[in-house]
Design a protein that fits this description.
The chain is of the alpha+beta class and 243 residues long. Helix content is 35%, strand content 24%. Strand 8 and strand 9 form a beta hairpin. Helix 2 runs antiparallel to helix 5. The longest helix is centred in the last third of the chain and has 23 residues. The protein is globular.
Amino acid sequence: MRRLSIALLSIAIARGPASGVVLGGGLSDTDCTVGFEGVRATDGASAVVCQDGDPACDDDGVVDGSCRFVVRACAGLSSSGCEPRQISSIHVAGLALDAPRAAGDGMRCGVADTITVPVGTAAAATMIARDGSEPKDVDYLNLCCEAGPVPLGAVACGLAVDPSIAGCAAVPARFTAALARARAQLAQAMADPTQAKPALAHTARALRRMRAIARTRARSDLCGDALGLWVGETQNLLGAARR
């Protein structure tokens, strides 16, 4: 019987990574209102940085030039110190994840989606839960695939996604310009370690500019909160890398 149990456990492990939850950042006491099930954050609150073929995160467990993630959007998650809020609507932007039912008790999820991310790229989503017009939870998920460990890789993953993940009808041109500067400075830091310190300082400055623009946008559109959360998580990753 013991041999059979071990064999069954081995098969379960071989089938793919264990299920996890990414709450997606934001306020800790509301963060469980909605989130992403099926993956585990590796960096910060929102980044899932996976090595191609790593069975802990790549669902097919094969080195094939891409990482496969199985993810579903959920509401009413369980988390220590957090009580899910009552909500009336959920909006998902970026990845075309199936939104869960807003109303109801307990955990409820949309249909699971398989997301294939080529090596060297990232895909992302944001989710905004409201009660009427009042925001109750804003979350962000970044799925990134790498061939192997890369210095500053998690930061590069954060900057690799398109601002459209926030669901804004139009992203301010100033934000897009600052994002281009942040990407260019980070690329310089990664390519030339001797210039990493000043280049990362410029990257941080561009991110602060992006955060300020997002806050201004949030005064008139909740997508600004989603933009700000994405930028804030990337700032946290950069801060950790610079320490």
